[in-house]
Amino acid sequence: MKKINVVAIDGPSASGKGALSRSIAHRFGFDILDSGLLYRLYAFLSHLKFDIDEINKKISKDISFISDEDSVHVIYEGKEITNHLRSENIAKIASEHSAKKEVRRSLFEIQRNFYNEKGLVADGRDMGTVVFKDAKIKIFLTASKEIRAKRRYLELQNRGQEVNMPALIADIEKRDLKDSSRELSPLLPAEDAHIIDSSEMSLEEVFSLTENLIKKEFI
Ligand code: C5P
After folding, report:
1. What's the CA gap between 157 and 7, in Å, rounded?
2. pLDDT confidence of residue 162
3. Per-residue pLDDT tens over the stretch 65-85
4. Is the CB of residue 22 less than 8 Å from the CB of residue 67?
5. Which helix (H) or strand (E) holds 136?
6. Which of 6, 25, 99, 158 is most deeply buried (CB count within 10 A of its CB)?
7. Pocket test for ligand 1, best of 98, 107, 173 (most atoms within 8 A of CB)
8. Pocket residues for ligand 1 (CB within 6 Å)?
């Protein structure tokens, strides 16, 4: 299989995929695909009663994704809707939709279209196993559930959202179980993925490991 210039980063909720992706994109000038945001957008638009074809068109044409070092921002009809998409409630609905074949099929092409020869960092659950099987580098990033809940807690608090820690841990556990046990594209490390447990590591340490891999494979 011909390998393409993609760093695929998969892992459970709040394992640090987003922060790592942004650091890589910033350091190497790569584009970013936050595939979880697409599933969250799907949940958001289907709540507005758009059907699957309309959602597909809207995501491809009417939505802009702007990345900076802190976040990927989503603009819809001139308004930034990122904070809304980042709520745990939308995540729950996204996870329900993400188990459906037609939803995964419809988002597949959209995700492949994010490819840029200069380099793409793609984060999600099935980047290395399904969408970018041909990625040059595959990372499976994980961490203990307590550490992940703490990271998500701080992230949501920083966004000004109310958070209840026990409810957050329960939500994360439920969503991870659902994502790993579903029939289609379950959350799993690809056979050729580098597995990194970041429970005891700082973002800088994880970044440095990944940076070395990219330098070896891409340059
Ligand atoms: O990564 P994030 O938490 O934003 O993803 C929200 C939900 O979208 C996940 O819990 C998962 O159900 C779904 N998802 C997926 N495949 C991806 C990315 C996200 O099924 N590649």
Report:
1. 29
2. 86
3. 999 888 899 999 899 999 999
4. yes
5. strand 135-142
6. 6
7. 98
8. 13, 35-36, 39-40, 91, 94-95, 98, 124-126, 175, 179
Residue 117 Cα to ligand 1 midpoint, Å, equals 25
Kindly list the domain boundaries of the chain, sorted by start residue: 4-214
Looking at residue 219, what is its pLDDT?
Answer: 67
Q: What is the DSSP letter of 61?
A: I
- Is the domain defined by 4-214 classed in CATH 1.10.357.10? no
Give the residue, out of 9, 17, 93, 95, with the most ligand 1 atoms within 8 A of its beta carbon, to mutate for a pocket test.
95
For residue 110, report the distance from its CA to the centre of ligand 1, in Å: 15
CA distance 133 to 189: 11
178 CA to middle of ligand 1, Å? 11
